């Protein structure tokens, strides 16, 4: 896979993780809203131009790592995130 850099953008109780792919100006996004110590992963959006490269998975992995580091839970509202949690039972510690 081409290099992917994940950044976090937060404004109050909402935010996004952005996936920047080295050979593209397109950005993948995972959006969330925080309530009561849980960050609800609402949408995973990956443009077709950067699809099929594992970008969505990297976004979820970044959110899981952030949850472990900063002590919040993840509520998988987005269907992609919900399936990712089913595939990764080792993430149960951060599921809200």
Task: Give structural notes.
- It is a single chain.
- The protein is of the alpha+beta class and 96 residues long.
- It has a single domain (4-90), classed as Aminopeptidase (3-Layer(aba) Sandwich), CATH 3.40.630.
- 26% of the residues lie in helices and 39% in strands.
- The chain contains 2 helices and 5 strands, in the order ββββαβα.
- It has a 5-stranded mixed sheet with strand order 1-2-3-4-5.
- The N and C termini lie far apart (31 Å).
- The mean pLDDT is 96.
Write down how many β-strands occur, each being a DSSP E stretch of 2 or more residues: 5
CATH homologous superfamily, by name?
Answer: Gcn5-related N-acetyltransferase (GNAT)
Q: What low-confidence regions span 5 or more consecutive residues with pLDDT below 50?
A: none
Element-by-element helix/strand order: EEEEHEH
The global form is: globular
CATH architecture: 3-Layer(aba) Sandwich
Largest beta-sheet characterization: 5 strands, mixed
Report the CATH topology name: Aminopeptidase
Distance between the termini: 31 Å
Tally of structural domains = 1
Assembly status: single chain
- The percentage helix is 25-40%
Strand content: 35-45%
Total of helices: 2
The first-level CATH class is given as Alpha Beta
Mean pLDDT, to the nearest integer, reads: 96
- Give me the Rg, rounded: 13 Å
The helix/strand class is alpha+beta
> What strand line-up does the widest sheet have?
1-2-3-4-5
Gist?
Keywords: Transferase. By secondary structure, the chain is an alpha+beta fold.
Short key terms for the protein model shown above:
96 residues; 26% helix; Aminopeptidase; 2 helices; alpha+beta
């Amino acid at each position: 896979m081409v290099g992917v850099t994940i950044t976090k953008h937060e404004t109050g109780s909402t935010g996004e993780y952005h996936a920047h792919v080295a050979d593209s100006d397109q950005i993948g996004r995972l959006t969330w809203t925080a309530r009561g110590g849980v960050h609800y992963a609402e949408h995973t959006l990956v443009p077709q131009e950067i699809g099929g490269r594992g970008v969505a998975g990297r976004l979820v992995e970044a959110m899981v790592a952030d949850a472990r580091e900063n002590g919040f839970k993840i509520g998988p509202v987005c269907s992609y995130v919900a399936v990712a949690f089913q595939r990764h039972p080792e993430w149960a510690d951060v599921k809200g």
